[in-house]
Amino acid sequence: MTLLDPDLSTLDSALARAEAGERIGIDDAEALLAATGGALDRLLDAAARVRDAGLDAIGRAGVMTYSRKVFIPLTTLCRDRCHYCIFVDTPGQLLKQHKPTYMSREQVLAVARQGQALGCKEALLTLGDRPEDRWPEARAWLDEHGYGSTLEYVADMARAITAETGLLPHLNPGIMTAAELAMLRPVAPSMGVMLETTSRRLYEEPGQVHYGSPDKDPDVRLRLLEDAGRARVPFTTGILVGIGETLRDRAESLVALREIQERHGHLQEVIVQNFRAKPRTAMQDAPDADLTEYIAAVAVARLVMGPGMRIQVPPNLSDPQEFGLLVRAGADDWGGVSPLTADHVNPERPWPHLDDLARFTADAGFALRERLTAHPPYVTDAWLDPAIRRTTYALAGADGLAVVSDDGAVVAPIAERTEERAEAERPSPASAFARLLSRAASDPASLDDGEWERLLRAEGAELDALATTADDVRRYTVGEALTIVANRNIASTHFRRAPSAEPDTYDLAALEGIVRDAVELGLTEICVQGLLAPGEDAASYLDIARTVKHAAPEMHLHAFRPQDVADLADRAGLGLDGALAAMRRAGVDTVPGTGVKVLSERVRALVAPGDLEIDRWRENISAAHRAGFRSTSVLFYGHVETAAERIAHLRELLRIQRATGGFTEFVPIPLPEALGGGVPLVAQRAPLDEHRAMVAVSRLMLSGVISHIQIPWTRHGVPASIELLRAGGDDLGGTLLDGRVLPGAGVERGLELPLSRARDIARGLFRPFRQRSTTYGDVPARSGMTAVRTTGSSASAGIGETEGEF
Which of 46, 196, 374, 461 could cross-link 378 (Cys pair, CB 3.0–4.6 Å)? Predict the structure, then answer.
């Protein structure tokens, strides 16, 4: 919304009171929320001083916190109709997406157990408000499973999560009565509901964001906050900035929260969340919250709530370059961040990697510490129900933050042995295959090689169950978003130092034209790989990189396989570490993890004796990761390899990933028949079923370690790729546009998947679409193709994989 210039005298008076540490009322807050320029600088400085004083008072100077969590979307049905929400589905949409009405106990525990293995301590249960009041399908499911209400099911799942994994539930179930708060208090150390705004206009006027949503009545939400205070429930709440509210509304909302806190003391944190427009919503064309307004709202929240309140800002809803401003505005908590699951409410906004978040926090002058879902002042007998105390205290250090090991490493929760757990571990009447699938989904590390081979060979109904289970794991971990990067391939094999008449070759001058063309097309990545032609100087690898970066400094350069790096290291006399350092200086950002078929010397000798030796590939990719390069990982299957060799390959990728964390995705690639591929692992099994089994096992085996499973659409064609996206895949690789300059320079010439086509695929799957960066981050709005060529061969039988590997 457009702001009028504030009354400068009012703003100066309000700033003076803020700087003097005086109490901020509604009028002052409204004036401060409009601050810009120098006034905003003064506002931020005042807010930071208040925050720092509060941290000093609790002995935590210079520390920002976060909660390591898993996000469990128990149901996406809801009785409300918020105009900005993409989380909610209708029963019809659930059917089209093959999603359940409610997550089953097995699905809930599968996510919780994987989170436990990664050291998560919070299980965030989020769901729609009272779906049974609107949808007969929800009422029928609850009746069939013996629950009187959705909240009864929430309580049961919270108990199961704690008993089975030791994770602490944080409940975000919408509006609750006093009786329901009392029912849920023993199963969770904390709960939360966003106030969002006290604006009645947004609730009462037709066309406004909360119209038709009974649970968004501000009076109802304020009453819930009062009831939670009387029930002594540690509670998280906050405001949403940019949904059509006025500055007065924001000021009144913050002051209302302060008054509730002064009466009850139970508000453990206040979230200041910025609106982000989402496709397929009534507000899809509304502008995102203005950055200046948002930063001012964070600062005013700090000043209104005072030094003792934790002010949370969700890191995935802001760009990393904005983090320093958020910290300067008085924030001291990032909220829940997951190493496993997506933000299912904001699927288009991936979490920052925790290592990156720690680095960004350090850049802002703070250290990052893990906390529990209940903040330290609330990890006491005075606030926790006796039923949840023991589990909570087991995860708390002396300072009330999350316990860490002696060497500072993350500590995983441990479930207590209970009768409920013992009962769950007794053999079930389900088939042996069903039990194996359940273990693969919830505890993949527990399966031995023979069990994974058994899954790889699944057929018929068992294969359907395998694909469904893998897709559920995909849905409840990396989320529903279907992703793709806007890129093109360039083969370094075709480079010539001197201009040449050979077909498809290019020199440095032509390369500049190719890169500028890519920029004009809105591409964000150029992938370069392939051994230089005999006779070309090894230094040309670096010249290619420098030329790309000179022509387009912001272009992401994804370049040079381990075999190419080895060639540079050997022929240029640089050694491996020297070659990697030279690549970094030349502008290479990430590296392809291709150049290997299966990590087996037996297979290499039979299929690709010219490939890099397996030990050297392993050494090379690990060194690249240690040098700060992230990479893809691949497996070429369907030739001479055995099921055991496929599993050994995946285990080796897991070992490397646990040691380095460098793989961004895994790409299972069928070898073309022309190169000896197309050999089924199971005789007479249809090719599509061969691929479904490979994708599904990859999803299950790598889950929680390598997050993304890419479907190489150039090998499968679009129709088959869609089926594989239903078997656990979440990414389509790259658009692979040939471009208008030297289209023959791409090794997969004629095979293109424009963003518009990828978006159509996502729409047909009823999944959100996200154009990603090479490393699965967000892409700035200015990037992306506005007009692309859609001519060329159909993607039905490619000659190369997504990164151009033959």
Answer: 374
Residue 386 corresponds to which amino acid?
Answer: P
**Predicted confidence (pLDDT) at residue 42 exceeds the cutoff of 80:** yes
Question: What is the distance between the alpha carbons of residues 413 and 390, in angstroms, rounded to a whole number?
Answer: 12
The answer to whether residue 781 scores a pLDDT higher than 50 is: yes
Ordered DSSP codes for 721-747: HHHHHTTT--EEEE-----SS-GGGST
pLDDT tens digits, 547-603: 999 999 999 999 999 999 999 999 999 999 999 999 999 999 999 999 999 999 999
Strands 310-312 and 367-371: unpaired
Q: Average pLDDT in the 467-491 region?
A: 96
Q: E-assigned strands of 567-721? A: 631-637, 663-670, 708-709
pLDDT digits 0-9 by tens, 343-353: 999 998 999 99
Contact 744, 490 (CB under 8 A): no
Q: 738: pLDDT confidence band, cut at 50, 70 and 90?
A: confident
Q: Can you tell me the distance from the alpha carbon of 801 to that of 439, in angstroms, rounded to the nearest whole number?
A: 32
What is the predicted pLDDT for the residue at 430?
74
**Spatial distance between the Cα atoms of 635 and 639, rounded to a whole number of angstroms:** 11
Dist. CA 783–CA 768, nearest whole Å? 18
All residues at 6 or more sequence positions from 200 whose CB lies less than 8 Å from its CB, including other chains: 218
- Identify whether the C-beta of residue 633 lies closer than 8 Å to the C-beta of residue 596: no
pLDDT tens readout for residues 112-125 = 999 999 999 999 99
Identify which of 201, 311, 296 has the alpha carbon closest to the alpha carbon of residue 251: 296
Per DSSP, the three-state class of 801 is coil
Sheet architecture: strand order including 769-771:
731-734, 482-485, 769-771
609's enclosing H/E stretch is none
Burial letters for 649-680: b for 16+ Cβ neighbours within 10 Å, e otherwise? bbebbbebbeebebbbbbbbbbbbeeeebeee
Three-class SS string for 444-498?
HHHCCHHHHHHHHCCCHHHHHHHHHHHHHHHHHCCCCCEEEECEEEEEHHHECCC
pLDDT at 471 exceeding the cut of 90: yes
Hey, which residues does 591 pair with through a beta bridge? Answer: 631
Token pair listed for 36? 């810009």
Q: Is 642 exposed, middle or buried (0-12, 13-18, 19+ CB in 10 A)?
A: middle
The pLDDT tens digits for 355-410 are 999 999 999 999 999 999 999 999 999 999 999 999 999 999 999 999 998 777 88
Residue 201 in tokens? 């206009």
Q: Are 164 and 421 in contact (CB under 8 A)?
A: yes
Contacts of 767 (CB under 8 A, 6+ apart): 97, 480, 481, 482
- Please state, in angstroms and as integers, the Cα–Cα distance from residue 785 to each residue in 156, 172, 347, 747, 757, following that order: 47, 38, 21, 21, 12
Structure tokens at 474: 């995909």
